[in-house]
Write a structure and sequence with these properties.
Length: 204
């Protein structure tokens, strides 16, 4: 981000996404919290616990958990989410997000755009798991997709386009080389972040 205006705008986009997520959570039934999400092994409750982890878990606890999990962040995040679900009720999980709608944070070696990506992608995990329309705006999705491409986040998520190009049907975005698959931007985000596979969308 090159100037203060960019920072303010990204922060506003992040707050908008968090507000939309809280609005979805406020309407959940008890059984909705047990529904599975695109995050393997996580229910909606685990996902929501993770989404507020950065606001509740201090660095000492995170480092200790990382040590227990031999330096693997994904396993540490999984342990923390499961521990939080076991000790927090649903109202507390929602409150942890609601009380931090405008709280700024950046992931390790990341920036505010990476934080926005975190909220948007997990917002997609939430709505996909619930079978509801996405809460992400076109602008948010566009920024997430371009960040994934420019920062090569596909490697982190283990995404493989299998010799295909993905073209968004609802945004000016294209990635990859080869035969073109035209898909909604939300679907492309899920593929690029390892929530789905190109093979899921091949005809025949």
């Amino acid at each position: 981000m090159s100037d203060e205006h960019d920072t303010d705008h990204v922060s506003a986009l992040t707050a908008t996404q968090r507000q939309a997520t809280v609005a979805v959570l406020d309407g959940l039934s008890p059984s909705d919290w047990d529904r599975s999400t695109p995050c393997e092994g996580w229910t909606v409750a685990h996902l929501v616990a993770h989404m507020s982890m950065s606001f509740r878990v201090g660095m000492p606890k995170l480092v200790f958990t990382m040590i227990r999990e031999r330096g693997n962040f994904d396993r540490a995040a999984n342990r923390l989410a499961r521990d939080d679900v076991a000790r927090m009720d649903h109202a507390d999980l929602v409150a942890a997000l609601r009380n931090n709608i405008t709280t700024a944070w950046s992931p390790p070696r990341g920036d505010l755009v990476d934080a926005l990506c975190h909220d948007v992608v997990h917002g997609l995990d939430l709505t996909e798991g619930l079978g509801r329309p996405t809460t992400a705006t076109e602008e948010q999705l566009d920024l997430v997709l371009r960040t994934i491409r420019t920062k090569n986040r596909m490697d982190y998520f283990g995404a493989d386009l299998a010799g295909h190009a993905l073209q968004a049907s609802d945004l000016d975005f294209r990635i990859g080389h080869g035969d073109t698959l035209v898909l909604p931007a939300t679907t492309i985000v899920l593929v690029l972040t390892g929530r789905g596979s190109v093979h899921d969308h091949l005809g025949g």
